[in-house]
Amino acid sequence: MRFSSGLADTVQGDMHGAILSRSGWHSVGYRLGTIFFWVNKSYSRGRVTLASANAFDEPNVDFAMLSDSRDLERLKLALRFGAATLASASMDAIFPSSYSPRVAAVAVPGTWNALQRGALSALLDIAGPLRGALIKGVVTQGITIDELLADDRKMTEFVMRHVGGTWHPSGTCRMGSSSDPLAVTDARGAVHGIEGLHVCDASLMPSIPCANTNVPTIMIAERVADALRGTVLDKHEPAAHAVTQAP
User: Which domain holds residue 193?
Assistant: First the structure.
């Protein structure tokens, strides 16, 4: 589901939602449906810094999520949109959720976790009219969607506490002019000032695209690879074509 937030200084199609009939691989996840929202065009900018002079040390990565207020306001808008979408008498219980460390820990395979998930699954099945109270007490630990919708401060606190990434970091080696102090490579992926070193992945993007990064990353890699092989044609030269057909 693609939609536009309409917030000032944002692009069209800047929001995305995915409807999941299963919220996880385990028994509890099979019993919970989810609308999962994210900002398709994040304006917050993080930093990657060296932890030490040792090349084998992992760098420090700070995504600085919600450092731009537009990201915060759009996630709050998405929660309200999701609640309005699910506001139906046929829905037994609507509640806010996130992939928190607590949820991730319980999802790890293991005997003890399996027993916990099995017990909660059984309770969800037999709770009937008490299912809402069970979700509030165990799953959300006291947070309700009605409380968040009625109190903007609580909504803000919830989003800031539970915000997470959607696994598509990019832009750490952005391409650009050699006169740009923030640019790492030129338009062919060649690192400024270092001969023979090229970058050809999502880190080249000077700005995150308003979509998943999979296809753009493939395109970037193929373009840089063609340039390295010397097969990129000059724009003034006629292009060669080859056509194959399959039965």
Answer: 168-232
| Calpha distance 76→63 (Å, rounded) | 19
Q: Which of 139, 162, 185 is the last residue of a domain?
A: 162
Number of H helices, E strands in the chain: 7, 5
Q: Kindly state whether residue 34 falls inside one of the protein's structural domains.
A: yes
Catalytic site includes residue 16: no
For residue 81, pLDDT beyond 90: yes
Whether this model's pTM surpasses 0.85: no
pLDDT 10s digits, 5-61: 999 999 999 999 998 888 888 888 888 888 999 998 899 999 889 989 998 999 999
Tell me whether residue 114 is exposed, middle or buried, using C-beta atoms within 10 angstroms of its C-beta: 0 to 12, 13 to 18, 19 or more. middle
User: Does residue 141 sit in the same domain as residue 175?
Assistant: no
Task: State the catalytic residue, choosing from 168, 192, 198, 236.
Answer: 168
